[in-house]
Amino acid sequence: QQPAFHNNRANMLRLLGRLPEALQSCTRAIQLKPDYAEAYNNRGNVQQELKLTDLALKDYAEAIRLNPNYAEAIYNRAVALQSVQQHAEAIEGLNKVLMLAPGQAQALARLAVSYSHLRQYEPATQSIVSALRTHPDNPEFLLIAATLAVDLARHDEAIGHCEKLLLREPDNAAALAKLAFAHHVKKHPVT
User: Fold this and answer.
1) 33: left (phi over 0), alpha (psi -120 to 50) or beta
2) How many C-beta neighbours within 10 Å does residue 100 have?
3) In this structure, are residues 141 and 135 in contact, taking their beta carbons and an 8 Å threshold?
4) The whole model's pTM is what?
5) pLDDT in tens, 127-175
6) Where are the alpha helices (DSSP H) in 51-154?
7) Closest by alpha carbon to 127, among 149, 147, 105, 146?
8) CA distances, 146 to each of 97, 103, 149, 151, 172 (Å)
């Protein structure tokens, strides 16, 4: 059997939520072709969904070792690093993604998240503004922008982002909570 068959099967199984089977298919693809960067990246995605971040990071690292300019694997590794609060290392990876794929909006938005966690608000703001420039209605980007605005006590801006997001996704719990918080803090400022 061909390694690509098993890797493609793993993608389909992952989309169906059949993660243990997807993991087996990725592993079979790697057994058949040990230098198959895409299969390592795919297995990393499955491991990350299974909350096996250490294993996911190893698979992403192997995919990158096999193909140092594999932007998707570099991006996925950065997102996994964010999930374990390794934001400085995530920033390095996201910047490399942007060198390989300038203007990649998802990488810009994720960069904003890591910069914000490190309280580096100027580059965080620049990154999310750049992401929103190309995708002004993206719900994930709007929530990141709202969160950053709240962190910077720019409550009207946070409210605007939340309201725009809620026009697209009226039941978005995170946006509703952020909106309520921004309104509350605006009416009752902390002194």
Assistant:
1) beta
2) 16
3) yes
4) 0.92
5) 999 999 999 999 999 999 999 999 999 999 999 999 999 999 999 999 9
6) 53-66, 71-83, 87-100, 105-117, 121-134, 139-151
7) 105
8) 24, 21, 5, 9, 13
